[in-house]
Amino acid sequence: MKNYFWNMFANIKNGQLAKRAFVHQKRKRLCEAFLKILWTEGFILGYKISRDDPDSIKIFLKYVSGKPAINTIKLISKPGRRIHYSIKQIWKIDSNEVFIIFSTSKGLKTIKDCKKLNIGGEAFILIN
User: Fold this and answer.
1) CATH for 3-68 (3.30.420.40, 3.10.180.10, 2.60.120.620, 3.30.1370.30)
2) What is the mean pLDDT of each run of 10 residues along the chain (128 residues)?
3) Nearest residue to 22 via CA among 55, 53, 45, 56
4) How far is CA 36 from CA 47, 49, 65, 128, in A?
5) Which helix (H) or strand (E) element contains residue 51?
6) How far apart are CA 125 and CA 76, in angstroms?
């Protein structure tokens, strides 16, 4: 189910290492929700749905002074090992130093949103 999600992480990571302006990704709702978070937090320049192929998304990568805006993407929860955090565990994490995206019952949320809404969830990704 989440193969597209893991592939998108690899595409973004490899695209930034190769200094590409954009990468293409298969269009899925989960991927779009993740891209929306990255865009609002300033990690990518944006994304758009391809005119030629409506099942494809074009992701515009962001660079700051020639260096990628996303230094590292670490997958916390993997298909073979799911890692869930309760709200008590989330409050122990310093949200100023770490940017984590959680899958919650209310959709994909950042660590700051989880603290505001007082909900826990499955930790997907850690971005530095």
Assistant:
1) 3.30.1370.30
2) 76 93 91 93 93 92 92 84 93 88 92 94 86
3) 45
4) 8, 13, 23, 17
5) none
6) 5
